[in-house]
């Protein structure tokens, strides 16, 4: 039998059933996740190698990128605001009533210290300026240093010195020894990770100075320095720039917009080239200083080409129709990483309606309130307590030093926001008060105001009106009618 007469046996195939997954899908290792390695490296090890580069790129982005600058402006405007985070003393007598004379004395002394002459060692920043500078630095660099300096240059005996985090050298690391603590990235810590001291470089590493003796450090006890940064992982010692996830996207977007802008400008120029099948040289109308041939072109003019000479146009179509959609998609991703709404970051109100704006604004405000709470606790209150001790010691604040704990009872009033829909919001507040689930203090605080100050202002207005013989009637309390419904 010939081989080709033999019937070919059917190919046998075996169906392989997919085995059930025995773990998390996100942990599977296959061809689709081969480049998604992940890392279990300790956060301080990551920061030790990458923090200087990360901080430098964040700074460069805020210098060159419009959206990064916009973000920093939003941070300053929403966390600090126009008037800064205002101190309100709540010092109380033993019966629980507000000690008005002591509270006024504290607020007056604090306001006086906050002027340019006393607040900082440079004499160029007020307390409001310091608040804006510090929060901007933390957002851009991930961290900021504020040093307390005891000085006789002002009656309160203390001033602030704001420093960039570059003074904390990430390369200064020392293991724990029998008689000395461990130093990690310039921070001296005990066995529990508590900050004991900071080893600061005497000069900023970015300054154009020459040190023949190498690096020089100054050891500053922890109680004399505030190291402000948001902790995202347990044991983290250094801060991370807030734009970390958006840095690459915004940088690429800036480069893309620049390329499209250049291409659009080239496209608008409508350039072209003269061609010749026999290779004859085009003489042109004139030549420039470098000897290059040029041809004069005027709007509406026509030119007869030499015999055998052709013209090939160069007409790039830019910007493309996908440009706008691509930019919006990129900014939506960046705004998500920055915890802000897209329409605020991009300043784009073209495709939004009232309901979507309201929803985005309310959610974004909650993020700003979180940052305000962190800033008050980590910075404002700690500065005030240190100032209070110094002011009582130097007698610049003429109150009994032994009542220090009484005077630390303060309330910080950050900026608030007006209503998104005043009619509906006012009606909701009135119903909340009537039901007993909301207070007038809550409503005032949401707008960055203090209820006691509102009542005092109303009393002053009433007295003033009586002095001038004026009477202003008030509308009776009625149910507010929603005309929209």
Q: What do these coordinates show?
A:
This protein is α+β, with helices and mostly antiparallel strands. Helix content is 40%, strand content 11%. It is built from 13 helices and 13 strands. A 4-stranded antiparallel β-sheet has the order 4-5-6-7, with no helix packed on it. It has a 3-stranded antiparallel β-sheet with strand order 3-2-8. Strand 5 and strand 6 form a beta hairpin. The termini are far apart. Mean pLDDT is 83; it is low at 476-485.
Series of H and E elements: HHEHHHEEEEEEEHEEEEHHHHEHHH
Shape descriptor reads globular
Please state the CA-atom Rg, rounded to the nearest Å. 33 Å
- How many E strands? 13
Terminal residue distance: 95 Å
Low-confidence stretches: 476-485
Helix vs. strand class: alpha+beta
The whole-number mean of residue pLDDT values reads 83
The helicity comes to 40-55%
Going across the biggest sheet, name each strand in turn.
4-5-6-7
Number of helix segments?
13
Main sheet: strands, sense, barrel:
4 strands, antiparallel
Strand content: 5-15%
Features:
40% helix; 13 helices; 13 strands; alpha+beta; 3-stranded antiparallel β-sheet; 4-stranded antiparallel β-sheet; 485 residues
């Amino acid at each position: 039998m010939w081989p080709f007469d033999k019937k070919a046996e059917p190919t046998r195939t075996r169906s392989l059933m997919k085995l059930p997954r025995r773990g998390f899908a996100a942990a599977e290792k296959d061809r689709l996740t081969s480049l998604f390695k992940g890392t279990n490296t300790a956060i301080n090890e990551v920061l030790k190698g990458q923090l200087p580069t990360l901080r430098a790129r964040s700074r460069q982005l805020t210098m060159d990128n419009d959206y990064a600058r916009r973000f920093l402006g939003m941070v300053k405007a929403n966390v600090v605001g126009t008037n800064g985070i205002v101190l309100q003393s709540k010092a109380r007598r033993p019966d629980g009533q507000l000690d008005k004379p002591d509270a006024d004395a504290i607020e007056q002394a604090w306001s006086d210290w906050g002027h340019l002459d006393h607040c900082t060692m440079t004499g160029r920043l007020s307390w409001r300026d310091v608040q804006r500078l510090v929060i901007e630095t933390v957002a851009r660099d991930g961290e900021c240093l504020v040093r307390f300096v005891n000085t006789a240059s002002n009656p309160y005996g203390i001033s602030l010195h704001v420093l960039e985090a570059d003074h904390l050298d990430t390369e200064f690391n020392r293991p724990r020894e029998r008689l000395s603590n461990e130093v990690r990235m310039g921070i001296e810590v005990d066995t529990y990770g508590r900050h004991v001291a900071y080893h600061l470089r005497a000069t900023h590493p970015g300054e154009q100075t020459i040190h023949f003796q190498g690096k020089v450090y100054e050891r500053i006890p922890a109680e004399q320095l505030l190291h402000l940064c948001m902790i995202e992982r347990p044991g983290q010692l250094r801060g991370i720039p807030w734009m970390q996830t958006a840095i690459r996207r915004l940088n690429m977007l800036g480069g893309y917009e620049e390329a499209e802008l250049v291409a659009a400008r080239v496209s608008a120029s409508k350039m072209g080239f003269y061609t010749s099948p026999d290779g004859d040289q085009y003489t042109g109308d004139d030549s420039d200083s470098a000897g290059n041939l040029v041809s004069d072109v005027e709007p509406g003019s026509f030119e007869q080409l030499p015999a055998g000479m052709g013209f090939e146009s160069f007409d790039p179509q830019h910007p493309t129709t996908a440009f706008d959609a691509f930019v919006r998609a990129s900014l939506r991703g960046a705004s998500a990483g920055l915890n802000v709404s897209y329409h605020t970051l991009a300043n784009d109100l073209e495709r939004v309606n009232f309901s979507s704006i309201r929803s985005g604004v309310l959610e974004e405000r909650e993020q700003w309130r979180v940052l305000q709470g962190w800033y008050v606790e980590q910075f404002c209150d700690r500065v005030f307590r240190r100032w209070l001790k110094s002011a009582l010691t130097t007698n610049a604040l003429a109150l009994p030093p032994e009542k220090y704990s009484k005077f630390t009872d303060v309330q910080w009033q950050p900026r608030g926001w007006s209503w998104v829909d005043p009619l509906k919001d006012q009606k909701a507040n009135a119903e909340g008060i009537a039901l007993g689930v909301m207070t007038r203090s809550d409503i005032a605080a949401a707008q960055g105001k203090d209820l006691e100050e509102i009542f005092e202002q109303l009393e002053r207005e009433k007295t003033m009106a009586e002095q001038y013989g004026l009477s202003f009637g008030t509308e009776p309390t009625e149910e507010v009618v929603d005309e929209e419904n």
